[in-house]
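Re-run with default settings, no changes from the original entry. Doing this only to confirm the output is reproducible before filing.
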Amino acid sequence: MNKERVLSGMQASGKLHLGNLVGALNNWVNLQDKYDCYYFIADWHALTTGYADTSSMKESTKDILINFLAAGLDPEKCTIFIQSRVLQHAELHLLLSMITPLGWLERVPTYKEKQQELKDRDLSTYGFLGYPLLQTADIIIYRAKYVPVGIDQVPHLEISREIARRFNYLYKEIFPEPEALLTEFPKVTGVDGRKMSKSYDNAIYLSDTPEVVEQKLRTMVTDPARVKRTDIGDPELSPVYHLHKIFSSKEEQAEIAEGCRRAGIGCIDCKKILIKNVFRIMEPIWEKRNKFISNPDMLYDIAHTGTEKAKKATEETMKLVREAMGLY
């Protein structure tokens, strides 16, 4: 029986962190057993906001590929590839740009949000405006049925559905309208209490050494009311406790919460438990990372094989598209 297809990707805009692991990668690993999954490194997408400095692009792409594999993506179960190596994405992006009204692109929620967030960059480019078109091409060129997203990202997928619908109406029924595969994305707290993010410089990266991870966790902020060991606290006010909710067992969470409220556990001991549990998650990843770092030929072969498979799938779609649009 043919499996339904899933498509997702990550931008090559920096190192992956614990938030990426628990928010997306762990879910991707689970999906690869059930669906025909295509996962890619979106280096072209990274250019839409980071075009002015591409000095770290290659290294970032390589590191993300290593983290994909270290997190448990299996090239025998899913297709892993690099976006810019599959030129059919760009061809479909161009053709979709011919039929997509400007107003559709300008009303995408992230268009103005990102401009406000990244005021230090000139985002008055077509590449930035056309980001949703490239994203649509990425998805529908594989005729993917599902895209794993959180509930807050569903509106961003709607424009892909609209563009696919418009193409099918104008030419021929080729593209299924991609559906959201709703996923619970837990918010991972950074070491400063805000959401973990590269831009906040508060992340624990999958490429961090054990010493760096331990140092970051040991210096995390806790409940500001607990100045002394004997002070009682509120675990909900402690960023450390919010990480316990993700990485520690229910029993440990209950003991830590009660100990915090009664001053029965100190912040140092609380962090030691968290460090132990984060290490339990990261140690297999570190081991696999070292394996791939020391074997670049294996890494290249995996990327090459996945990219060739992606090219084959996309060329099948593009033959239908060219014929439908009357291209010679």
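The chain is about 55% helix and 10% strand. The CA atoms of residues 71 and 156 lie 26 Å apart.
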